[in-house]
Amino acid sequence: MKSITINGSKRESVGKVATKALRNAGKVPCVLYGGDNPLHFAADEKAFKNLVYTPNAHTVVIELEDGAKENAILQDIQFHPVSDKILHVDFYRLFDDKEVTMDIPVHVVGKAPGVMAGGVLRKAKRKLKVKALPANLPDFIEADVSGLEIGNKLYVTQVADENFKILHPDNTVICQVRVSRAAMKAAQEVGKEAGKAAAVESTEEAEEAN
């Protein structure tokens, strides 16, 4: 999985006054969990642009002023309810021999025959929660829809991989091909016309019988 580097500096004080001063200076207070002790540090708000405002998944290299580096993943992020500014970020330290859980984006590939026949592809899951060793975390999960006819569904079991575990029930649908609204409306109109024709025919038969 691709990594993004976040340059930070250790925080000597973690009180409300110090935190407010950091935010006023365009910094974001952060905490790195995992291991023996949490690591408190701060980073420029603009450093999170490519990590937070993207559909892609990344691991993080936290590089501190003293030259220390920590491998981590984004665990939680808090936004201001009005301005949407980043208020606080939590990271979790990665260990080569410990599995971690991440949300991985789904990339749909292929052309579904059902779509070419007039159906519509509905995406039920744009991300899947997986568990794996850091080295086995995928950049994305490929969902091949080239075998989907109208009415068919693609389940998580069909994108399983031995390198990671998908943390969703086996019957979880990733995407499906459904009949388009236009096709449904057309079918309903045909049904109505057929019903009218059948009613007329029945009436005519009754009149002939009399």
From TrEMBL:
The keyword Transferase does not apply. It comes from the Bacteria. Residues 6-91 form the Large ribosomal subunit protein bL25 L25 domain. Residues 99-179 form the Large ribosomal subunit protein bL25 beta domain. GO terms for cellular component: ribosome. It holds the Pfam family Ribosomal_L25p. The keyword Ribonucleoprotein applies. InterPro entries: Rbsml_bL25/Gln-tRNA_synth_N, Ribosomal_bL25/Gln-tRNA_synth, Ribosomal_bL25_b-dom, Ribosomal_bL25_C, Ribosomal_bL25_long, Ribosomal_L25_dom, Ribosomal_uL5_bac-type. Gene3D superfamilies: Ribosomal protein L25, beta domain (2.170.120.20), Ribosomal Protein L25, Chain P (2.40.240.10). Keywords: Ribonucleoprotein, Ribosomal protein, RNA-binding, rRNA-binding. SUPFAM superfamilies: Ribosomal protein L25-like. Belongs to the bacterial ribosomal protein bL25 family. CTC subfamily. This is one of the proteins that binds to the 5S RNA in the ribosome where it forms part of the central protuberance. Part of the 50S ribosomal subunit; part of the 5S rRNA/L5/L18/L25 subcomplex. Contacts the 5S rRNA. Binds to the 5S rRNA independently of L5 and L18. This is Large ribosomal subunit protein bL25. The lineage of its organism: Bacteria, Pseudomonadati, Bacteroidota, Flavobacteriia, Flavobacteriales. The gene is rplY.
